[in-house]
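Structural prep section.
Before we set up the soaks we want a predicted structure of the protein with adenosine-5'-triphosphate in place, mainly to decide which crystallisation condition to try first. Input record follows.
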Amino acid sequence: MKDMQTIISLAKRRGFIFPASEIYDGLGGVYDFGPLGVALVNNLKKAWWQSMTRNHDNVVGLDSAILMNKKVLKASGHLSAGFADELLECKQCQKRFKKDEVEGDVCPACGGALSEPRQFNLMMKTFIGPVEDEAAIAYLRPETCQGIYLNFLNVLNTMRMKIPFGIAQIGKAFRNEINPKNFIFRKREFEQMEMQWFCRPQAANDFFEYWKKERLTWYQIMGLKKENLRVQEIPEEERAHYAQRQIDIEYHFPFGWGEIEGIHNRGDWDLKNHSQHSGRELSYTEENGEKYYPHIIETSVGVERSFLAFFSDAFEEVAGGRTKTTTAVKEKEILLRLPKALSPIKILVLPLVKNKPALQEKATAVYQSLKSQFSCRYDDVGSIGRRYRRGDEIGVNYALTIDFESLDNDDLTVRDRDTMKQERIKIKALPAFLSKQLAA
Ligand code: ATP
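Run finished without errors. Recording the tokens verbatim:
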């Protein structure tokens, strides 16, 4: 059983994730990515971006603004009840709960009486310009996709796209979640990786199946264990207000199953609505004159939720002494089996012992020769066993050790994190060897 607390403490201790504004007691539902976290996030985004835009000729990218004109969110339904939770307030302790979290009619915290449910909009509000009045209200986007619909015509015309085609975007989204919880699973400021696929109405069902398969395959190519993934078909009464069909891709987190990605058939809801509200015609005309509002298939992944899925999947506690060591053996050791595409540091370069200038010099030369091509670190602090374990904890794929034999033979050992096999390789053969291994 993986324990969430151990995962959270590893994430903090090794510089992946910190609570935001920590020295001022934090800010609920907001986190910062540390040096290793941001490296992992960048790798994750790059992998998604490449699989979406490079592997699909007709998917192009976009980066639209976070601040949105409130008319957009009126048209999209976010300013109405469509994007609100029903909240109950305890008359005694004043705590607030989502209606679906309360069983019975008393406060889960103190047993006090509860108020009637009232609507609570999840959007974050701000003001544009110096005057904080009604006219100056703007919103931080609650999802990245609206910016894509607003740019549908711009992309269509400037890129000479033809239906079907897609627009992909990675960016921040904000929701004033009532109960942010489960570490970075439910945050108030988070990031989404979304792709909107515009197609003929008749083709929408087939493309829904196509993208569902593509997305599930991606998680498996990226190394998530099959048994930790499942697909849930969402019944009509639970679907988002715009969705004609919806599936959630769920991951089996240490705290239970949770959605990491939603795939939605949004029909013509978005382009039709924005046409009506903006007065700009967003329909599409085929070469044969046929005119229609393109239907949209959306794939929407959370960066943090998929980060947490990959991180939890990779996390393992193994019996101490896995690596032969001269220092005391701990009862348990942590191993982070991150896939090569995601690990923040792929290679460690280690002189066998410290205080041997010849070893340090050679190891430094190896490190210098690799660092522009690979994400690598030089480490000579502590015993070699301890350094291997530190690398295992942050998911380093290969440890290169320069020992006394290396001085005569111009070679080193390559230790594989997962198999612990050590192989001797000539230093001049290293770049080709590592390129091959890390491309696999
Ligand atoms: P939930 O039902 O868990 O609130 P949702 O169905 O509202 O999620 P979508 O609107 O479909 O989520 O958003 C798409 C993706 O964005 C989700 O699958 C998730 O990965 C991510 N996401 C949504 N809300 C949050 C949040 N508060 N914190 C982190 N990620 C989120």
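Observations: The CA atoms of residues 217 and 252 lie 17 Å apart.
Flagged for discussion at group meeting.
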